[in-house]
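ugh finaly. both done.
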Amino acid sequence: MNIPALESTTAIKKGGSFLVEETAPEAIFTPEEFTEEHLMIRKTIEDFMENEVAPRIEEMEHKNFDVTVGLLRKAATLGLLAIDIPEKYGGLGLDKISSMVVAEKLTRVGSFAVSHGGHTGIGTWPILFFGTEEQKSKYLPKLATGELLAAYALTEPESGSDALGAKSTARLTADGKHYILNGTKAWITNAGFADIFIVFAKVNGEKFSCFLVEKDYPGVSTGKEEPKMGIEGSSTRTLILEDVPVPVENVIGQIGKGHKVAFNVLNLGRFKLGVGCIGGSKTAMGESIPYAIQRRQFGKPIASFGAIKNKIAEMSIRTWVGESMAYRTVGLANEALKGIDVDDSEHILSAIEEYAIECSILKVMGSEILSYVVDESVQIFGGYGYSREYPIERAYRDARINRIFEGTNEINRMLITGMVLKRAMKNTLPLIPAVQNLMAEIAEGRYTPEADDSYLGVEKAAVSRAKKALLLAAGAAVQKYMDSMDKQQEITSYLADMIMDIYAMESALLRTLKLVANQGEAKTSIQIDITRVFINDAMMRIENSAKQVLAAITEGEALGGQIAAMKRFTRYTPINTIQIKRRIADHMIEAGRYCG
């Protein structure tokens, strides 16, 4: 089959536009395009994790945080605390792709990755993006070297997902020089050794605001270490604020605008967490695949059994698709950031916020991919997977927090659908015209597109039809519930699942088409297999989600008509996934690891 060569493009896509626009394969970034610098950073981290961090896992797991602090400062000598900080403040000022490479590779040891992320991400970004010049000059150089370590304090005992329901207060002193902070923050990562805390409190009990609090300020203390299911090597404590005097110059951003700091930082955190989960999936398969090769039952390696091959294949498929989504998204953000001055925080945040939908998708799908991979890895290990003598037991426990971190997956599902609909109502995402065009197609009996004879034409048509299925389901739901959609959480969750699957399907397809154009079909047969299986299975999920939505909003003949229309868009002839998955598994087994 003739596969056309790709031409370069620099067009910048709007966030969420994948739902209503076609994207060319050459428009996305893929891991195959890492520069020499990216590969060098990746190798540096791999060596650091292998030689410095991995040998000290047990010490960290037993709460020896001197080890954690020492390793963070060793990481600083390699520049691993300074990736996002501009050079003028003592950082490296590297691109967002470099930042994601770091996030992915550090997850070999979950606890250390959490400690690192708590410092370099949510602990540093508020100062980097919202701080004054004085705050940046004072704190960022020391954060880059690890002289100061940071923590982010948003959650409270009674306000988790409802961050704006915080009870912590701040009161301006009569002389106007300090804010007096009172309150308790819960589940604060790095609290046991942090030097500074990014704290959110309400001025006069009303104006949600952000403050930079040093640990040595009077009235600052922490509780005992929380006993946790996983990430035991990370410090997690309550932060207690009792009449803490915070200089007025330590306000981050504007009084009453703390939500801008909190939500933008969480959005960035979702970005990194999703990539990190993909790295964790690769690490887990690096344990489970070799074990499946070595472990013998009934006189054979268990890797030769079909049930085990199915697990290895499915883990590999989800991980490769997750990776495709992650680096597509970071490529979008990286392109949008080009030409923006390092001090232009407003435009930097605006460029990244454009992809808030994609960031939430990465967070949800990445964490659920990792949960699946570690669970199946434990199953491959059997009884030994349940033993603390094997690393997969720790990986299983460590992975669970990711579905809670940075906003629960339930909250993020509602955010995904909510952001899509909000942008549609503002007409920044042309969803309404797309729904209107779809209704006209249905009325006229036109059901497009049909598969053509282009390469992976069946899969291309499936992705396009899946988008129409979403438009039909979402349009029907909005028509029924209008402004009360936010109260229909089950429906918004089903719609979010459809949106996520569409982004995943298209990301995998575009990456594969780009690979085939650049390397040829013979060298990319496994990636082709992965893409075909994922799209096959996703179409079944999309059909189910769409039916659930339609059945919830209508009934009788009207429902029958809606389902009939939907079937036109979700029809897909199943492929022999059993045979294809065996090929995928054999490829990974031959490599002895995940090999995308």
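ok and the 2nd:
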Amino acid sequence: MPSYRDTIRNFSIIAHIDHGKSTLADRILELNGMYDASKGETQVLDSMEVEKQHGITVKAQTVSVPYRAKDKTQYTYNMIDTPGHVDFSYEVSRSLAACEGVLLMIDASQGIQAQTLSHFFVALEHDLEIIPVINKIDLPTAHLEMVKEQIEQDLGLDPEGALLVSAKRGLGISELLEGIALRIPPPKGDENARLQALIYDSYYDIYRGVVVKVRIIAGEVKPGESVRFMRSGKEYELEEVGTYQLKLIPKDSLRAGEVGYIIAGIKSVSEFGVGDTITHTEKPCAKALPGYKEPKAYVFAGLFTADGEEFEGFTEALHKLKMNDASLSFIKWNSAALGMGYKCGFLGLLHLEIIQERLEKEFDLNIISTVPSVEYRITLTSGEVFTIENATEFPDISKIARVEEPYVKANIIMPKDFMGQVMQLVQERRGIQTNLIYIDTGRIEIFVELPLAEIIYDFYDKLKSFTKGYASFDYEFLEFRDSEVVKMDILVGGRPVDALSQMVHKEGIERRGRGVVKKLRELIPRHLFQIPIQAAVGAKIVARETISALRKDVTAKCYGGDISRKRKLLEKQKEGKKRMKTIGNVNIPQEAFVEILKRSDDE
């Protein structure tokens, strides 16, 4: 008689962004009667408004699907719909550690893209069964033979084993469900061994606390038992265990090979980390599961409210988001220009945009973000080493022995016709080409090393623009390298504006400085006195613009008479303007900060 594990299939759906992962998940749920598509709801597993609006998955989602095969066997499919964007690649890695197989989705019209390859290699590292799935076969632009050739050449997989589907129209989904049962192996594990459970995700429920998503690797867990999170050492008593079928379904226990959830009255997701191991308190397992790492912020920015009176609500909103997103970090930060706010750390630029959008839409806040920055490593002449994320923390240049900035290893897949433009873009951003591969007659893959600071602004947008949308881009952190980075101050009326200070490489100082001062000259309204706007590095001014003064016609009441009377009035006005300049504050409107912080170049 087959064991309970023989009818379990744990698999993940992985692909490049926008290749149809969430749509396929919808069709699988619909075909198994778990939701009604006629109601018009799509992306059922994407619970956040920003996910539905952008058509992307931000949080990995799981659902247990009961499936009755053609041979009448009743299976349980544990399906994980993973994020596709590079910012959330760690979540993909942990999700795959909870699986035995993956559906690798490829767009029939676009073929294999950079993140397709990235996720494919992660799946290979985890020794998973990989089923290639060619999606969007009903499109007039579909090139099935081209994609099959790419599957054989790029991935080394049998193209005849690829499943052909249209997730939107539901074509080929029945064959795909049968293929999962036949080709993905059942989970292994000894239910009588000591408990080893992998945390691959979690979320915060306002009524139940943190719901922890787990894959039971070995042993068995039941409500009422005491468990320990091995990395943090914290212990909890379990209130409930179960599986997720678009709602929480409690069970008597979770056994080796099963995927489900546990609830233990945990107050915040920051009390543990994704990738941590759960074991019994009294009879713990010998060692934690491998692969755990702390989520690391790579992009930093200051967040402020346009209205200072909203600060209390802003603080509460950030803490609520932190309950769901352990990778978000923040500390209080007081800016002379923008008031009280928070210096926040993010996984990447998309993560920053998602957090800012959630603050504005879910909590009705008007948020201003400072210029995004990366982490720099500073070595002082005294030998002290520390890291900074913001230009305001940059020490006096005379005390600095060396500055190091983070570099990333990136790969770009694109049609070969655009190679010249893309290489020019890479060189402009201080990139170094390390390798180039001709994938087939029409496409190439370029491997480059780039400073992270050069790609967090608009590198991806420019790449898409130069290649008419055909290029795909993926990167991972490489190392810190020596760099000639300096602090550029922006002075308005002779006073530095801390919110506009930036860390800039020496090569781009003048270009960046000119862009900022030109834009500020357009955005700051004229005052009754002249306002100089300067970009400075130390005592050196690298760019300057001047806003001319508003002038009242004080000689309007003089009709004829001696010219000396007019001169006297003009001299009196000049003296008044001098006094006003020394005591008057320049009013910089909030819109000026928003515009400047969008992009600080004159490109």
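summary for the 2nd one i guess: The two ends are 69 Å apart (CA to CA).
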